[in-house]
Specification:
The complex is a heterotrimer of chains A (393), B (224) and C (334). By secondary structure, chain A is an alpha+beta fold. Chain A is built from twelve helices and 13 strands. Helices cover 53% and strands 19% of the residues of chain A. The chains are: A alpha+beta (393), B alpha/beta (224), C mainly alpha (334). At the A-C interface, helix 2, helix 8, strand 13, helix 9 and helix 11 of A face helix 1 and helix 2 of C. Chain C: Keywords: Membrane, Transmembrane, Transmembrane helix.
């Protein structure tokens, strides 16, 4: 009995496929539009997903706690002497004063991340170079750049270049090392230099830095230490690594949700279209169903036939839409949606997105595209299934 | 394997404004292995009668039994399940699906029974041979001649090996030569043990020598 | 978190399910009011075909419910990356008081739809449709249940507040991350496992008895049904408290949801699937037993009972093996 049940559905599936192929135009049109809708929804999901993962990769390198001073709600520089007031907190392993900012190079329109660290911290930093060495103490103007920065500066074999300070005077630098490409996600647009050189470039006063990077001995104590710091330096913004991570996820999640709400209109119109197409049966189709019913197909067999047809259309569209969305995000950086997700460029000026598609993502896209479509086709399918057999006599 | 109808009435659209009484207190019985003709003008109710015998829909009132089973109060689902076991039906307009091949058309009733493609082919082959249409088996049904189409329709009605074969105006779209050919085929089927009921007003059918009895229907009643 | 993609997807599925069940309920009410098997009126003919609409809708409803349950768990796991103090799905469910109730309602929903389908499958095999009234009263009752689920789910999502870095100065954000957040307190492992294995053994015996003997008396039937429900709850507790931490090889992580993750080879999927199938088959057997004496149902009931007893037995064995593997592997080999 079980084998004949399966065989029956195989038979009906087979018939459904041949019946779909007989009506290529109608079903192909539906599948195409459905693919487009799924493409839009899936692109969005993949884009947010890969932004999240990229953000996490970047944040692995971020300090446990970052301290910034706020004035009038804006970030301002702070003196590195404030390190002293934190010295008494137990559990802090290290505090590194940093100058961390962006430099817009008007010559070629590129945006570089400038990272200035004290010379002894640079030597201890866990960065790997493909060749050269790290900037040394008391050697002004020495920098490490990535190969992509070298390309954008059009250095070729030259070692030195200049950048404009804010007063349009020029600061000159000498390349002493190149980052490996492995850390491109982090160092792709970075120029690493001595703290003093970075202050000079940004015209920060002596002893001023943009933020303090605090690392702690025991990561589980991060929140406690952050609380203590906030007690000592009430005018600072204290960002912990995990909070930044959660914020990114929330913001991306919210943005993609907002985008999805907009895309839902596309889904809704598609569902209406699918309903309409499934309802509008031609005389030929009605006659075919009546013949099938006369020949012994029951209402549930016709419903199964329609079900398999819908599943086939949905599967083809789902696969097509997902593939296109993957290509869109992986190779075109989700360019259709960057205006909506604008702002992530604050994270990295340029990103190579690598959508890691998980089962959960697929199920998510499936449930807000395929399920509404299936739900929309049930009632029209039933209406067609109850066409009376005797209408052909 | 007989058919018994007792005081059968059929009212279409009961309880609505367009209510129509198609059959009024019809009683008849059909003996096994006979060929019976229902004769009447169009609109006389003979198609309705044939449909009730053919388990297409139940009568509104009265008793009907086909092959020993009471079908008068059977829900539509069970009527359909029973129909596909005991009834083979041949239509006036053949009602084949023109885009499917001859073989696929013939084996269509086997799909919901869960029979595999190979087994379906195996069951169709003897019928294709018997009705000499095996050379057409892979042709789309829309591209074969009227006579062949009629044979396809017969083969399809026989694929489940039902004890009853019902035909509704089977010769309406055939010339006299093909009509006679059709009658020869059904005569053979009768000889092989099938019970045959034909609704027709074609004299070539009603006056055929192998027809055992003719029942005249007029305005939903049996004329005596 | 309503306007997060996950929240949206959950809401969309729920709305689709509501649409399905509301449409089916319309048929249900019409059947309850107008069903008359002795009539040949147009209404009766329409109702006979509407039965198919309603049953198809409920079958889709079951499918939607299963997907929605799975998606709910996966969403909770995803939310844990945004919620204060949540480390995994457990934390998200505990983030407000609606999480766990919604989860339980969704789990029970799978059984509620499933049992309706069993009743329907039995009903349509008899020419008398003997269960038609019960079946449609039952269907009408599903609607408020579904509404309750949707309301609680919406409240859960709406009250789930994500952690956002605000721009005011010197704010200390959020609470601490807790490492060992658990659904249930600690129980004696030995006692639990002993109970688990003995109930499983009783049920195995029950299945074998059901396969050999023809009928069970009504009180035994009820007892058997209750044992299956007890087993389901006990299994969830055992998975949460004992089995999961052996799978994770982390003594303080007792979470029934993380076993679905790829890190643990998705072992949770077969575990939960076999558990659901075993309990569902077991309960189907009991329910079919009560329909035995209805007109025209003796043969279909016998067929269903044989199938369900076999299925329950097989699934039960696989479930017990799968869920105890890591536990015994640890006890015996380390």
């Amino acid at each position: 009995m079980q084998t004949s049940f399966i065989q029956k559905h195989l038979n009906i599936l087979d018939y459904a496929l041949s019946s779909l192929l007989r009506r290529k135009l109608k079903n192909g049109g539906i599948a195409l539009i459905f693919s487009l809708v799924i493409f839009l929804l899936a692109s969005f999901q993949f884009l947010t997903q890969s932004l999240e993962t990229t953000a996490e990769k970047v944040l692995v390198f971020a300090p446990d706690i970052t301290l910034q001073r706020l004035s009038a709600g804006r970030q301002v520089s702070l003196p590195d002497s404030s390190i002293g007031s934190l010295a008494g907190i137990f559990g802090i392993r290290q505090i590194i004063p940093r100058v961390w900012g962006y430099h817009f190079d008007e010559k070629n329109g590129a945006n570089y991340t400038i990272l200035g660290l004290p010379a002894d911290s640079i030597q201890k930093a866990e960065v790997s170079l493909s060749h050269g060495r790290l900037p040394q103490k008391k050697k002004p103007g020495e920098v490490v750049i990535s190969s992509s920065v070298r390309a954008s500066l059009e250095l070729g074999e030259r070692k030195s270049f200049t950048l404009f300070r804010s007063d349009l005077s020029q600061a000159s630098f000498t390349v002493v090392g190149i980052f490996t490409d492995n850390t491109d996600i982090l160092t792709g647009d970075t120029i690493l230099m001595n703290l003093q050189d970075a202050r000079d470039l940004f015209r920060l006063g002596d002893g001023m830095v943009t933020d303090l990077a605090v690392s702690v001995t025991n990561p589980a104590e991060t929140d406690t230490i952050a609380a203590k710091i906030s007690g000592i330096m009430p005018d600072t913004r204290i960002l912990t690594n995990s909070q930044i991570r959660k914020t990114y996820r929330t913001v991306f999640g919210w943005r993609s949700g907002f985008g999805s709400v907009c895309l839902l209109t596309a889904l809704a119109s598609f569902v209406i279209l699918a309903w309409d197409k499934a309802s509008g049966l031609s005389q030929e189709e009605k006659r075919e169903i009546a013949i099938l019913k006369f020949l012994g197909f029951q209402i549930n067999d016709i419903l199964a036939l329609r079900f398999w047809e819908s599943i086939a259309v949905a599967c083809v569209s789902f696969l097509l839409g997902l593939t296109l969305a993957y290509i869109h995000v992986a190779f075109f950086e989700g360019s259709l949606f960057t205006p909506i997700l604008l702002g992530w460029s604050v994270l990295r000026p340029s990103l190579n997105l690598d959508p890691a598609v998980t089962f959960a993502d697929l199920l998510l896209v499936f449930s807000y595209s395929v399920l509404p479509y299936l739900a929309a086709t049930i009632i029209p399918a039933w209406r067609s299934a109850v066409i009376r057999a005797e209408t052909i006599i | 394997m007989n058919i018994e109808l007792e005081n059968v009435c059929k009212i279409y659209n009961q309880g609505k404004a367009n209510e129509v009484k198609a059959l009024d207190a019809v009683s008849l019985s059909v003996e096994p292995q006979t060929m019976v003709c229902l004769r009447g003008a169009s609109g006389s109710g003979k198609s309705t009668l044939l449909s009730i015998i053919g388990c297409v829909f139940p009568p509104t009132s009265g008793k009907a039994s086909v092959a020993g089973k009471q079908i008068s109060r059977l829900p539509a689902r069970f009527l359909g399940l029973y129909r596909r076991q005991v009834i083979g039906f041949i239509f006036q307009k053949f009602n084949v699906l023109p885009e499917l091949s001859v073989l696929d058309n013939i084996t269509l009733p086997l799909l919901p029974l869960g029979i595999s493609p190979a087994a379906r082919r195996l069951r169709a082959e003897p019928l294709l041979d018997k009705l000499s249409i095996s050379h057409r088996r892979n042709f789309p049904a829309g591209e074969i001649s009227g006579g062949e189409l009629q044979r396809v329709a017969i083969a399809r009605a026989l694929i489940n090996d039902p004890p009853f074969l019902l035909a509704d105006e089977p010769t309406a779209h055939l010339d006299s030569k093909l009509s006679l050919e059709f009658m020869e085929i059904v005569s053979d089927l009768k000889a092989s043990g099938k019970t045959i009921v034909i609704a027709s007003h074609d004299p070539l059918v009603t006056d055929h020598r192998n027809v055992d009895s003719v029942i005249d229907i007029h305005d939903g009643c049996i004329a005596h | 978190m309503l306007f997060n993609t996950w929240g949206l997807a959950l809401s969309i599925i729920s709305l689709c399910a509501l649409f399905l069940i509301a449409t089916a309920s319309r048929t249900a009410i019409r059947v309850l009011r107008f069903w008359d098997p002795n009539s040949d009126s147009s209404t009766q003919i329409e109702l006979e075909s509407e039965i198919w609409l309603s049953s198809t809708l409920v079958m889709y409803g079951l499918g939607f419910q299963i997907i929605s349950l799975l998606l709910f768990v996966l969403a909770a796991d995803h939310f844990s990356g945004m919620i204060i103090g949540a480390m995994c799905a457990t934390g998200s469910f505990l983030a407000n008081s609606y999480g766990i109730p919604v989860l339980l309602i969704k789990i029970a929903g799978v059984f509620i739809y499933g049992i309706w389908i069993i009743l329907h499958q039995l009903d349509i095999q008899s020419e008398h449709y003997p269960l038609i009234k019960i079946k449609y009263w039952y269907l009408v009752a599903i609607l408020p249940y579904l509404l309750l689920e949707i309301i609680l789910q919406t409240r859960y999502l709406a009250e789930l507040s994500p952690e956002i870095i605000t721009s005011c100065c010197a704010v200390f954000f959020g609470g601490k991350e807790q490492l060992g957040q658990n659904l249930l307190g600690t129980y004696s492992t030995t006692g639990l496992m002993a109970g688990f294995y003995s109930v499983a053994a009783v049920l195995c015996g029950l299945c074998l008895y059901q396969l050999s003997a023809k009928k069970l008396s009504a009180p035994i039937n009820i007892g058997a049904g209750l044992t299956w429900i007890l087993f389901f709850i006990l299994s969830l507790v055992v998975i949460t408290v004992v089995v999961s931490s052996y799978i994770y090889a982390m003594p303080y992580h007792h979470c029934p949801f993380c076993i679905l993750k790829a890190e643990y080879h998705g072992l949770g999927y077969p575990i939960f699937l076999t558990l659901f199938l075993a309990v569902f088959s077991g309960i189907s057997h009991i329910i079919a037993g009560f329909c035995n004496n209805l007109p025209g149902l003796a043969a279909p009931v016998r067929k269903l009972q044989t199938l369900s007893a076999r299925c329950a037995l097989a699934m039960l064995c696989i479930f017990v093996l799968l869920s105890s593997y890591h536990f015994w592997a640890y006890i015996l080999f380390t």
